[in-house]
Structure formats: structure tokens, C-alpha cells
Design a protein that fits this description.
By secondary structure, the chain is of the alpha/beta class. It is globular. A seven-stranded parallel β-sheet has the order 8-7-6-9-10-11-12, sandwiched between helices. The protein has a five-stranded parallel β-sheet with strand order 2-1-3-4-5. It folds into two domains: 117 residues, 3-Layer(aba) Sandwich (Rossmann fold), CATH 3.40.50.720; 183 residues, Rossmann fold, CATH 3.40.50.
């Protein structure tokens, strides 16, 4: 019996490719070329499955050009690169990699919060430029983290992880806003209190964004929202680019509407708004919140297991959609 054919759209761990090769005829991209949409369609011809990352947009045009495609397994918890309704309509299963990156991403979110609050990037640039010649009482004096108010917009698994770190490790008062309030037991575990979005913006000393990207969350933080925040507050985005209006944020940072920001995601990444490079009070990282070797390997293995599960048992481990007929 012939093995199903799959495309691995970006470079991945060699041991994961070996694992996939036991079950599939694999076309790999270990050169890690970023394909255009037209090139992706070309590469997907004859492929029944795809191992994707956030770089590959799977939409109606791709699906129409690749009718043999049956599953796309994303090596990410986010899936805004997938048009899930279009995939469902085309009978293509979508999957992602939740849970395996929760704690690692929460670690990074809190690290970015601390780096932002304590002005680490500004002070390192100052030191590297040879400007440090003496001590002064207010040199790079930042904001307190312990005992302050932590606000979280989007209280899923990662948001809850950040809440626990703040509440239990740093004695922070945790407030959050979500589409709906958490159950009482989860709120107690996180020591978190549900508030309106307006109260969250006005009250938080440190605001962390952990909500999924959608048309509804596009520019959830723009000029109006930034104006509601304290001038001493910090903003951290580890969610997705597009949730923040980056142009409005750069202006707010320049005008000191808020004190500082820490950003791991950007609109149009890997490009970013040029104004963000001209303000000193921002910490910038290249979408690395889940980037530990152990976690990235776990993500890759789960994406591979979704492909294997679908083609061997007719179901993926972590599907995003339900198909009327999911027979491989």
C-alpha cells in the first residue's frame, strides 16, 4: 500500500522528519524557504497532508487549487493563518498544538513584563554605547512589579499561567477581562478578579495581552484604549500581531501616554512598524515566546502526531474543526 504524501512547509527537527517518514512520503523544506502563496499551491500539488507553521496561509484559494488536500497540521497554538470555515467547507481537517507550550510561553510573557517594567533594553543599549560613567539615583528607575496590579486581556491557558506567576510569585493583584468570566475555582487558583475591559485598562499597572487574533480582536488596543491606561503603565503583547495598533502604540510610547511596552508579535511580521524602532521605551523580541528546544520539539511532535493520527486512525489529537466525514 502506498504511503500518503505530505508536505512539510518549513524546516523542522530532523528526528521529526524521520518520524514522519515512517508513515508518509515526505517532501521537506529543510532549506527553510519562505514560499509565496503561488509557490505554496505548487508545492502542495499531489500532497494529501501538510505540516504548516504560521507562515503558510491556508485559505479558499489554496484549497480550491489543492482538492486532494485532507489535513493541515499547524505547528503553533495560534491558527490565524488558517481559514477554518473554508477548510471545513472543503473537507480539510485543521489542527494546532495547544497545551504543550503553555508554561513556556507564560514564562516568557512574565520575563518580557519584567524586562519592560525594569527598562532592561534601554539600560543595555546605554551601557553598550559607553554612556555609563557614574551612578545616579534615578538612572533607569522603572516600575515596581511585586505588589502591583497585573491586568490580563484574554484569560485562556497562557493567561492563567501568567496570572499564577504574578499572584503567587510576586504578590500581584490580578484582574482580567475575557469573553466570559472563569469558573470560581479557576479564579481562586489564579487569585484573579473579572473586570470590564475599561476597568482593566484604567487600573492595570502592567497589562498583558494573551487573546487570540480574530476580526473581532483586530486593534483591540488602539489609541483610545492606550489613552485610558495609566501613564506609568506597561503593555506586553505575546498574543498575535494585529491585536495592537502598532502605529498608535509607537505614538503613545513617544508621547509617554504609557511608560513602556514589550512586544513579541507585530502587525505584518517579520516586518514591523518603523516607528517602533525609533522609541527607546520598548522591548522587542522576534516572536520567540515558545522558543525553548524542549517546547518547540513538543510542538513539532504534536503536529506530526496529528498527521499520523488522522491517516492511521481517522482522527487528529487536537483538531480545530469537525468534518461531516473525516475518513482519510
Amino acid at each position: 500500500m502506498n504511503k500518503p504524501s505530505i508536505l512539510v512547509a518549513r524546516a523542522v527537527f530532523p528526528q521529526v522528519l524521520d518520524k514522519l517518514a515512517q508513515h508518509f512520503t515526505v517532501t521537506a523544506n529543510q532549506a527553510d524557504v519562505l514560499w509565496t502563496p503561488a509557490q505554496l499551491i505548487e508545492k502542495l500539488q499531489g500532497q494529501q497532508g501538510a505540516f504548516t507553521t504560521g507562515s503558510e496561509r491556508i485559505d479558499a484559494a489554496v484549497l480550491a487549487a489543492c482538492p486532494q488536500l485532507k489535513i493541515c497540521a499547524n505547528m503553533a497554538v495560534g491558527f490565524n493563518n488558517f481559514d477554518v470555515p473554508a477548510m471545513t467547507a472543503a473537507g480539510v481537517l485543521a489542527s494546532n498544538t495547544p497545551d504543550v507550550l503553555t508554561e513556556t510561553t507564560a514564562d516568557f510573557g512574565f520575563a518580557l513584563l519584567m524586562a519592560t517594567a525594569r527598562r532592561m533594553t534601554e539600560s543595555e543599549h546605554y551601557l553598550r554605547a559607553g554612556q555609563w560613567t557614574k551612578w545616579s539615583y534615578d538612572m533607569f528607575a522603572g516600575a515596581e512589579v511585586h505588589g502591583s496590579t497585573l491586568g490580563i486581556l484574554g484569560m485562556g491557558r497562557i493567561g492563567q499561567g501568567i496570572a499564577r506567576r504574578g499572584a503567587h510569585g510576586f504578590g500581584m493583584q490580578v484582574i482580567y477581562h475575557n469573553r466570559s468570566a472563569l469558573d470560581a475555582a479557576t479564579e481562586a487558583d489564579c487569585k484573579a478578579r473579572y473586570v470590564s475591559k475599561e476597568e482593566l485598562l484604567k487600573t492595570a499597572d502592567h497589562l498583558v495581552l494573551v487573546l487570540p487574533y480574530s476580526a473581532q480582536s483586530h486593534h483591540a488596543i488602539g489609541a483610545a484604549e492606550l489613552a485610558l491606561m495609566k501613564p506609568t503603565a506597561t503593555l506586553v503583547n505575546i498574543a498575535r500581531g494585529g491585536i495592537v495598533d502598532d502605529a498608535a502604540l509607537a505614538q503613545a510610547l513617544r508621547q509617554k501616554t504609557i511608560a513602556a511596552a514589550g512586544l513579541d508579535v507585530f502587525e505584518g511580521e517579520p516586518k514591523l512598524h518603523p516607528d517602533l524602532l525609533t522609541v527607546p521605551n520598548v522591548v522587542l523580541t522576534p516572536h520567540i515566546a515558545s522558543a525553548t528546544l524542549a517546547t518547540r520539539l513538543a510542538m513539532a511532535n504534536l503536529a506530526a502526531d496529528n498527521l499520523i493520527g488522522y491517516f492511521t486512525q481517522g482522527q487528529a489529537l487536537t483538531p480545530l474543526n469537525t468534518l461531516a466525514a473525516a475518513t482519510p
